[in-house]
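Re: the 136-residue chain
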Amino acid sequence: MPTTDLKQLARDFFDQVWNQGDEEAIVRMVASDVRGNDEDFGTSRDDFVEQWRSWRAAFPDIHFEIADLVTEGDTVVTRWVLTGTHTGPFLGLEPTGRRVCVNGMSLDKFDNGILVQGFDGWDAVGLRRQLGMEIV
């Protein structure tokens, strides 16, 4: 797949799935047996949907701003900035109304236009600090 098409797939994923909150986009864009490094997001599309719903409920205005996109073969690395307002329960914390801003990256592998594997790295400690959570 051409580099420009892979970059567009990544843009579409973040825009449709996260920014627009389109759950049907997950079905269209994510393999049923998608694999990732984050245990919370599980090892299937159904697991991903479950976590996605909890994030969308906690941060209904969640938004991913793409800072950089780099491709190599069938893999796209996306550096992003997540923003949102904590208005729903999250990780056992009642809503704080606080705005958050978190930096991260996703290394995603696509096969025939479908996301089959993802590796995410992001500032989870920074998110917890912004929400006023105790860091252990």
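The chain has one domain: 3-130.
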